[in-house]
Amino acid sequence: MAYRVLECNVDDIGKSGVYSLVRNVIINNDRDNGVDIDIACINPFEDQKDINEFKKYHCNVYFVGANNSKIMRYINVYNKTKALLQRRHYDCVHIHSDIAFKVYPFLKAAKAIGVKKIIVHSHASSIDGKYRRIKDILHHHYKAYVSENATDLVACSDVAAQWMFDQVKQNEVKIINNGIDLQKFAFNSETRNRVRKQLGIGDDEILIGHVGRMAYQKNHQFLVQVFAKFHQEHQNSKLLLVGEGPLKGDIQTEVEQLGLQDSVIFYGTSNNVSDLYQAMDIFALPSYFEGLPISGVEAQASGLPVLFADTITKSAAITDNCQFVPIDGEGATFKWVKQLSNFIGHKHQYTTDEMKSKGFSIKYTINQFLSLYTK
Asked: Would you say domain 3-179+359-374 falls under CATH 3.40.50.720?
């Protein structure tokens, strides 16, 4: 009989880093190893095509949320998850989250049913969205419960571990890299030429890229302001924004007010984001916080120079072609413009072997997941 795993709190909204990670594991999982994987989501999937894709890999998607108040929603998550666990008899529950109180209903349901293996996986180092102060209070209230009641503590980086789990538990946390299909992202000149042509990017134009949900965490407003200054110095430049999110309208307004409509491309989400990295010349990620950004891993796998905010863990720099620059304080915008200018002319590098040796291949990540599930 197969060993059954339920991946909890995963959805396709904005094609987040967590979604990309779990999707990579599922589509690359060799079912001959005897492990079957399903998904339980709080929010409904946005695209039926994503659900259909998972079905091809024998992965079922179950909605355990509810369209009512936040409090009632989490009561529903507990009740529906408990019922699902009773019905499907999972051997392992793997809970992905950025906040402890989102972990709580899944963890409590798994404990109530008596699931022997309960993994809590931290993917962030702070709080996104609205009501951040309230969320912060709730997070710290439930942090001790999560740390004490999960059988396995996992994080994507040191800062993500410190955020989710109590200090006394830090030595028990297993760090698992956000691995990707390195061959898929390796630089390809033919793909670059094709995609740049599709985007209307000339051979002599500089394309700065960003991939991420349009929400507070990713700090798009700062990126647009930086690009406005950069564009004044480099008229042959464009900014490619890949993603959707609640702040898209605000970002579009900012672009219009700065008169950059013809120089900023709002691409939306993509299931072929690997091709878009090929078209870029520089990747920029000015996030307020990250666990360990998958987009940064993907950009480096594509051989791009990467400019990170100094708020992001230094472990995000897998290759030597990365720089960390402040997003706060006097002259922050100028410092970003200067470093972006320093990156002009850098060619895509071949980084596959280096990233594989450092444990960022999807095969390595899958093996790490499977060792957690079945040990």
From this structure: no
